[in-house]
Design a protein that fits this description.
The protein is an alpha/beta fold. It contains 10 helices and 14 strands.
């Protein structure tokens, strides 16, 4: 699951397969949005899968902020603790006058710890797919940091971006990627994103938060909270489709399911059809059998050595790494 900020398998998803027999065709008069095209492709292939970046409309972003405050959801508070306790050491690695590029920025919570510790940061470039949510968060940050240039960018950060030229006299350009959002990628997608980031940040570096392999029971609890907020977050994807795409998902006809796949060291999150049913989109109908799922998210877990090896393969130089006493979570400084 992303940081309280993300996006995630993202834009590197496989091309849709041939439409199954139960889908009937009709031509839509209105061109579909990116979300609509992705949902249509998801429904037309088996197994069904859609990028978790579409979780993050305004309602989904607010639900994720609630997840981050849950007692079971350790990643956010653990990462905040590491950032708070090690802020001085992190700032020393980054240096003065830095420009911070945050990938999947959302509510802009964690970056405040970084900004408070840095020496004269010059500019902050938060990137997030949820433009409305990002603009509101950026306005709050501008009010609290009036001397900092804040330039929000509403975009899919997994795609190649042309960033503004560095400000005159600026220090390093540093990426900030907290929340273990890297875990939402498939391994080849994670490598592709890190390679992209290494090129964008050449001469600077990347500060990245990474969730670590741990007791499966603790992982299960983090994605199946007692209050049902994660379930609501998952099901909100269908509510968004009904509102934006005029689909007719029966929300009560689907259930949240999340489990830890130990051999692959990842949480898998799905929406499970409770019964046989059909869903329509743009004049096409798609059938679900009872128990059939839409796969909505992976959350891969890492070892410290595994992440460092991946970073080297992507073109980074692994430098400092910080963890909490229980080794639940890690924050890595990678030179670009």
């Amino acid at each position: 699951m992303r940081n309280p900020t993300s996006s995630s398998s993202f834009s590197f998803a496989a091309a849709p397969q041939q439409r199954p027999p139960e889908a009937t065709s009709a031509v839509s008069a209105v061109p579909l949005s990116e979300f609509g095209r992705e949902m249509q492709a998801c429904l037309a292939r088996k197994p069904r899968r859609i990028s978790p970046k579409f979780f993050y409309d305004a309602a989904g972003s607010q639900l994720f902020d609630r997840i981050c405050d849950l007692p079971e959801y350790y990643p956010t508070r653990t990462e905040l603790r590491i950032l708070g306790e090690r802020a001085g050491e992190i700032a020393a690695q980054i240096g003065p006058g830095a420009e911070i590029v945050e990938f999947g920025a959302g509510s802009l919570t964690k970056v405040r710890l970084l900004l408070d510790a840095l020496e004269s940061p010059r500019r902050y470039l938060p990137i997030d797919i949820s433009g409305e949510y990002l603009e509101a968060a950026a306005e709050r940050l501008k009010a609290d940091y009036p001397r900092l240039a804040v330039q929000p960018i509403a975009a899919d950060y997994t795609m190649p971006l042309v960033l503004p030229a560095p400000l005159p006299g600026a220090g390093k350009r540093v990426g900030f990627f907290p929340g273990s959002t890297i875990g939402n990628f498939e391994p080849d997608e994670a490598l592709a994103f890190l390679q992209l980031a290494a090129r964008m940040l050449r001469g600077g570096g990347l500060l990245i938060g990474v969730d670590l392999v741990k007791d499966p029971a603790r992982l299960h609890a983090a994605y199946n909270d007692a209050q049902g907020v994660t379930a609501a977050f998952n099901l909100n994807l269908l509510r968004r489709a009904n509102a934006e795409l005029d689909t007719d998902f029966d929300i009560d006809g689907f259930a949240h399911a999340a489990f830890y796949n130990a051999p692959k060291q990842r949480i898998e999150m799905h929406l499970v059809s409770r019964r046989a049913q059909t869903v329509s989109l743009s004049g096409e109908r798609f059938g679900f059998e009872e128990g059939e799922t839409i796969h909505t998210e992976y959350s891969h877990k890492f070892t410290v050595d595994g992440l460092r090896a991946l970073a080297v393969k992507a073109g980074f130089r692994p430098l400092a790494v910080w963890t909490d006493p229980e080794r639940l979570f890690s924050v890595h400084w990678l030179g670009a």
